[in-house]
Specification:
- This protein is mostly helical.
- Helix content is 69%, strand content 8%.
- It is built from five helices and two strands.
Length: 124
Amino acid sequence: MTESPSSRADAIARSGQVMSNFMAHAVLFQDAVARFGGINGTDMQVVSLLMSEGPATPGELAERTGLTAGGSITAVIDRLEGAGYVRRERDSVDRRKVIVSANVDAVLERVGPIYGRIGERWAH
């Protein structure tokens, strides 16, 4: 049976609304998790990118996030380092270069249990 153009358009519109609602709830959830962990939502997303895509220089991290390479990314890194979520290390090959890495143990300790509970709920 073929879908009529109007029912197809209605299904697409409903899908768009469901996706919009999902995105809004996901952003609000991530913001709540970040606050629970003592940081803001943007900073939590930066940590997430470092965990999923690996260590980066501040410039590379600015590209990944869309934040400017100037003061914005430096402020994010400063806050995250102060909170213990990331560490800065000199590149072993080029000592002028700084590499930012996620402190995975700190992330898992502080916000891991929240994601663990969500994972358990999704598995059932």
